[in-house]
Amino acid sequence: MRTIRVLVAKPGLDGHDRGAKVVARAFRDAGFEVIYTGLRQTPEQIAEAALQEDVDVVALSILSGAHNTLLPRTVAALRARGLDDVLVLAGGVIPAEDIPALKAAGIAEVFTPGTPTRAAVEFIRQRLQPA
Fold it and tell me: Domains plus CATH for the chain?
């Protein structure tokens, strides 16, 4: 069975990446292959990295408040490259009232502060591995 490949990315001008690095390590410790793009990525850069790295999951970390703009644009950029089956997750400071619209835009799940990292790991496993 192929190892699950996860791209962890920080869209926009947000300069805080501690959470992204913690999640990346949790994914690695869970046995996933992890690629971290670093700070200040555009949706197009993230989508291109996902295409080049042939990932199964794109995990977006955002704290800047630009989630309603950047996350749907990232999903659109992924889909424009034919990455229709890539699971897209988001984490960060995202108000509960914004989550339904993000899910409607293609974000499979949104993890907010205080969520244990194992919840994201289990979500990925449930979605990508047959029972």
Answer: 5-128 (3.40.50.280)
